[in-house]
Amino acid sequence: MEERKENLSPQAERTKRQFKQAFTELINEKGFSHVSVTDIVQRAQYNRATFYLYYVDKQHITKELKNEMFYQTKRTSKERYALGKLVATKSMDADSFELATFIYDNRSFFNLYLKEDTIPGLHQDLPRAIFELLDEQFTFTPTGDHDINSSQFKLYMAHGTAGLLLDWAAKGYQKSPRRVTEELIGILQAFADGFQVE
Predict the structure, then answer these.
(1) What pTM did the predictor assign?
(2) pLDDT digits over 8-45, tens only?
(3) Sheet holding 138-142, edge to edge
(4) What CATH architecture does domain 7-55 belong to?
């Protein structure tokens, strides 16, 4: 999924953000299938005409919200690293990457993963975003003589990471994002001495 940037004014960006925030809140409250465009515009305190300036229908705002969060998940998982520079896992700390903080800061959206009546296909997005990033851009230096750069291993890593993050969400984010980041780093250190982002 590629994020397509539109040339919108700050006011238009703010309006769209408010629509998406209202939509997310409503799904959390009553389930995706029970949210209508009328609900969204009433919650966001705009009129239907304003909604239709930016979106064709409920499916359109759904797709944009999913794509935006998919892209941001990938971005926040890699932006602290310089391309081509080897990162030693033993040098990593809680400030080494932002994924847990991003999820915590956007927990209203990530709580949608915990709902049965949620955005269709959403449950696959977090592991898929992590897998795509690992498979396309990360090369690991293994601890010992293991092939940890295969697509199968990276798929395993992606689903394991997503599972731990969603378990954290399901338990009400009791641990701090820094603590969760440290735990993920500890797991990474068990099988990788370092990595490069291409």
Answers:
(1) 0.90
(2) 789 999 999 999 999 999 999 999 999 999 999 999 99
(3) 87-88, 192-197, 138-142
(4) Orthogonal Bundle (1.10)
